[in-house]
Amino acid sequence: MQNRKVVKEIALFAKTQWKQTKPKTVEVRRVKDKKTLEFGFPPVVLLTRAPVKFVVCVEFSDVLRIYHFSSTGQLLSAKNFEHPFEIRNEIVKKSTLIVKFPRKRPSRA
């Protein structure tokens, strides 16, 4: 699948999670590649690609459920975490936000 189609499929999965389970928030995030080595002038950078490319974070009041997706959009695994704040801060540092539910829409005046 193409990258944009993968993002749309994962966003659709997140939307169904939002409608079915009614959590506080649902976020789709793309995991950043990790820099492993940089040398020379101009700098040559080697990146390590993770097998998990996308993460869907479903946050309830006391539990954070994380779904892991590959770069092709295949669901790899899901895991529950009891202390959501520590894990969520780590995920925010190592990923970029794509979609968030509930969406904050501008009010019409």
Oligomer state equals single chain
**What is the helix content?**
25-40%
Helical run tally: 2
How many separate domains?
1
What is the mean predicted local confidence, pLDDT? 87
User: How large is the radius of gyration?
Assistant: 16 Å
- Along the chain, the helix and strand elements come as HEEEEEEHE
Number of strands: 7
Strand content bin:
35-45%
Straight-line distance between termini: 41 Å
Which spans have pLDDT < 50 for at least 5 consecutive residues?
none
- Which descriptor suits the 3D outline? globular
Q: Which strands sit side by side, in order, in the main sheet?
A: 6-5-4-1-7
Main sheet makeup: 5 strands, antiparallel
Task: Describe what you observe in this structure.
By secondary structure, this protein is of the alpha+beta class. The protein has one domain (3-53, 65-100). The protein has two helices and seven strands, in the order αββββββαβ. It has helices at 3-21, 84-93, and strands spanning 25-31, 34-39, 44-48, 54-59, 64-69, 75-81, 95-101. A five-stranded antiparallel sheet has the order 6-5-4-1-7, with helices on both faces. A hairpin with a 4-residue loop joins strand 4 (54-59) and strand 5. The protein is globular and about 50 Å long. The mean pLDDT is 87.
